[in-house]
Write a structure and sequence with these properties.
heterodimer; A: about 210 residues; mainly alpha; 12 helices; 4 strands; about 5% strand; B: mainly alpha; about 0% strand
Chain lengths: ~210, ~25
């Protein structure tokens, strides 16, 4: 009995999925998934020790402040929480971060960004959503703009992106807009993910020890 | 950058909430 408990400890964690399975479904190697598990354990036990990432833990990791409200961080959390049960499980964490891998398909990154900005999840980015996001960004930064300026920025951007002029940006229009402005999805790529095993090597080392045993 | 030439999505993409690299800081 003792032998089995010692090796299956991680598999009893809620939401834990086998690294080999996750590696087969994402751009990550098995070692990288193992390294992500090290990071996940740290994030998912920072406030509530249950091996699940709660919204406050996500906020704490992003802002060093568990109570900091941020529209965009909330949207990211909601999109990572694929099962929509209020927590990010390990499999969800790895699959979602996979989109941010330098080798992930560009198409997937563009689609994720679209879903992120489609606040009301209508399948379109609407003008009032765009203005709400600009206001949220200004609120968190030191940048101050008059309402007239904000209106003009939103109008200009919207008219550039809304090619068919129906008052909303659909996925095809978004794709075309991003291809004209590739910097818009620069934050959808985390070069760091290619070096994740260097940043969190402990499990990799332990695996090698176990394998040599 | 002159406000009239700002791209609203460019502004938004600079949100700290969209910068996931913070997750990896020790």
């Amino acid at each position: 009995m003792g032998c089995c408990y010692s090796t299956s400890k991680r598999t009893r964690t809620p939401g834990y999925e086998e690294p080999t399975v996750l590696a087969s479904q994402t751009p990550f190697t098995v070692s990288e998934v193992e390294a992500l598990h090290e990071l996940y354990k740290k994030l998912s036990n920072s406030i509530i020790e249950d091996n699940l990432i709660h919204r406050e833990e996500f906020q704490l990791a992003l802002f060093r402040n568990r109570n900091k409200k941020n529209l965009f961080a909330d949207r990211i959390f909601d999109l990572f929480d694929l099962k929509r049960n209020g927590v990010i499980e390990f499999g969800e964490f790895v699959r979602s971060l996979g989109l941010f891998h330098p080798n992930a398909p560009l198409e997937d990154k563009i689609t994720f960004a679209f879903r992120l900005y489609d606040l009301k999840q209508t399948g379109f980015i609407e003008r009032d959503e765009l203005k709400e996001m600009v206001l949220a960004l200004l609120h968190e930064s030191d940048l101050e703009l008059s309402d007239d300026m904000i209106e003009s920025i939103v109008d200009k951007t919207f008219s550039d992106a809304d090619i068919n002029g129906d008052g909303k940006i659909d996925q095809e229009e978004w794709k075309a807009f991003v291809s004209k402005h590739p910097s818009l999805i620069r934050n959808m790529t985390l070069p760091y993910l290619k070096d994740i095993t260097l940043a969190f090597p402990s499990f990799v080392v332990r695996t090698e020890v176990e394998e040599s045993d | 950058v002159a406000p009239a030439t700002m791209n609203a999505f460019e502004l938004i993409s600079k949100s700290q909430g969209l910068n996931l690299s913070s997750l990896f800081e020790k």
